[in-house]
Automatic annotation (TrEMBL):
InterPro entries referenced in this protein's UniProt entry, alphabetically: PBP/GOBP (IPR006170), PBP_GOBP_sf (IPR036728)
GO molecular function: odorant binding
Source organism (scientific name): Acanthoscelides obtectus (Bean weevil)
Source taxon at top rank: Eukaryota
Keyword terms: Signal
Name of the protein: Uncharacterized protein
Signal peptide: 1-20
Length: 90
């Protein structure tokens, strides 16, 4: 019985921590998005389409994507950081 109670509490706590992490991550991504939209002036509809896989050749969209990648640390001065790319292999 004690093991079942501990398991239940563990599941509840894990769910709470994951939910809090998701909210924190979403807030971070929202701030990053707003910062890069402000810097580039990209149209939101182009971002929405890109998320669906429809990438435009729009220069502002490209700058937005570069901004996002630079802010999360995957590019430096327009070059991919190979050590980060190597760590993402599936």
């Amino acid at each position: 019985m004690l093991n079942q109670v501990l398991l239940f509490l563990g599941v509840c706590l894990t769910g709470t921590l994951v939910h809090a992490y998701d909210e924190e991550m979403q807030a971070l991504m929202d701030n990053l998005h707003n910062e890069c939209v402000g810097q580039t002036g990209v149209d939101e509809s182009l971002i929405i389409n890109a998320r669906k896989g429809d990438f435009s050749e729009d220069q502002k969209l490209k700058c937005y994507m570069r901004c996002i990648f630079a802010e999360i640390g995957t590019v430096s001065k327009f070059y991919l950081k190979q050590n980060i790319i190597d760590g993402i292999r599936w």
